[in-house]
Write the structure tokens for this entry.
Amino acid sequence: MIKSKLLRSILCCVICIGTNLLPASAQQTTDPATESKIESLIKKMTLEEKIGMIHGNSSFTSTGVARLGIPELMTSDGPHGVRPEHGRDWVLDNKGDDSSTYLPVGITLASTWNPEMGYASGSVLGSEANYRGKDVILGPGINIMRTPLNGRNFEYMSEDPYLISKMVVGYIKGVQDQGVSASLKHYMGNNQEINRSGINVEMSERALREIYLPGFKAAVVEGGVNTVMGSYNRFRGEYCTYNDYLINKILKGEWGFQGLVMSDWGAIHSTKEALLGGADLEMGTDLAMLPNPDYSKFFFAEPALKMVRNGEIPESVIDDKVRRILRVMYKTHMFDKRPSGSYATKEHSDVARKIAEEGIILLKNKGNILPLDKMTVKTIAVIGANGNRDNAMGGGSSQVRTKYEITPLKGLQNLCGNSIGITFEQGYTIARNAQADPKLIQQAVEAAKKADVAIVVGGWTHGYDYSTWSDNAYDTEGFDKPNMNMPFGQDELIRAVIKANPNTIVVLYGGGPIDIDTWVNEAKGILQVGYPGMEGGTALAEILFGVVNPSGKLTVTFPKHLDDSPAHKLGEYPGDSINVHYNEDIFVGYRYFDTYKLQPQFAFGHGLSYTTFKYSKPVVVTSTGSALVKLSVQNTGTRQGAEVVQLYVRDLKSSLKRPIKELKAFKKVFLNAGESKEIEFSLDKSAFSYYDDKQNQWVLEPGKFDILIGSSSSDLKTKNRVKL
Ligand code: BGC
């Protein structure tokens, strides 16, 4: 199945490193000899030189010290591809020689439920960053998907902290094993774009520890990430980038983070507070956007210099920041020979394709309409503007100038050649406030009637419309979507097409769920593709025709309606422009739907296959506070396929209210027809504990726990009960 040599070596590498995790401190500091080189460099530097290193000097760089051989630090977005080149003044170079590999975005990557894919994605990014001379890749983004409306959900991974923790570690190691630094963002609570630059997030300590921090912690402690980007918003009143509790106490204190904390672009608003609050590097946009940006006016430039000179800030505070930056530079091979990397290669696009193949999710397959059979399907009507639209340059800072992009239409044409007649109708118009267009719908209906199968490609779309904040129905940075409804009159279009041809399959693009309730029962086939990268159309066509058996699973609950979503029902969204209270607390996503018995459209972890799997009853052996779970899974169908075996834990009785079940382990297993494999899950005490905010600690209450194992959070196949 794995075709390229690179992919094989990437995957082999992840297996090797997976068993040899170094302790966090060992990963983040450098060796003693390098630490002493760093100290001697700091001793040689003037205060002005040190200050030069802690603030941006162009859109993506900070200053080095040429006389000491310290280079500029070169950062670049973003999570799913190396961003096109900018001039130092924030304007795209447009030289056209910076096209790179456009990988599936965060939500699609996580939908593979395969940490090896995280590593593969990171490796491609690291390699292309090296080739393009970038020292830091500004990704991964791992904010919790608290609301379906967040315009940046596409860049993020999941509503579930455990799944994020597993996917993010592979990604970071993939990037950093290439000698490039990853930048973990956005720490913390940047879960909406509306009022992102200052909204104050209020949540309980329990929600912080159980839901919002674990992904970041895993990235630091297990992934050894070199840099962390503080978010725009505030948390408990203080800006996150220099929030004493989040940065000094938790990140640098509890987790022992030795790398550098950079601000999001323009996220610093003061000098003294920010210097003392733990921010190490001020990056920015605002001043840089002026015709003649004056970086000496940054908070961490002249104002910082003045404060050290007049004794308000000890020089040792600046030294610590410089030390952290130098540490990252050594780890990123900025003082020795860097790996040369490679750029937009066939091997890299193979990785993009492989991730898309594993990340596309089959949500519904009534009467086994899929896979399509080339022997019987002779005509296909592809309908919908997303069917032949490029997405790589959309979405904001994560834009990628891709070498090429295979749209669904191109993917189908490539796979089918002349053997199947394929037509295309736009069906709807992507434009602000665009409504159903009777003429386009009529054309689509005519095409659908003539075809054996209609494939409507719709859902969300990347784009910008700066003219309004309130009705920007796009997946993009800086905006949230106004509601969860299908934009541009797609509901009417889909209903009409299904009526014209019952053999209709709907393909949904986008950063998460969308309200499909008016036609979900009538559509025979539904797929969720996220934004599947430059080879997305190839992967989609392969799945539609059964060349590849789908194995992606939802990383987020798909509610029927927005009002069902806990942030909207129990919590606040988007707050009152000053504060937002996360009153839904730990009941985010399926934790809420399952506990409060609300039926979602599709459950967290859901995703169908063209084959079937049988689970044996798990055997569980317990010892103090831990459990070893063993079971076998068999492919009982007639074609090979992969199953994501998901393990949830239910605490039968606890002093604090707990979700009815929580994901605590999973494994993606590849099985040939008829094959079965033994699977082992080792659960430590973290799988059974909750955070008690009264005691300020994790608590494992002795008692009975159910170990629930299945194919999704709602499709549980087998279980066992243990007493701890
Ligand atoms: C985004 C970051 C991004 C930075 C640099 C900010 O607006 O929030 O995610 O890395 O810009 O482009």
In short: Residues 77-78, 138, 185, 264-265, 397 surround beta-D-glucopyranose (CB under 6 Å). Residues 27 and 224 are 5 Å apart (CA to CA). The longest strand covers residues 641-651. Residues 115-131 form the longest helix (17 residues).
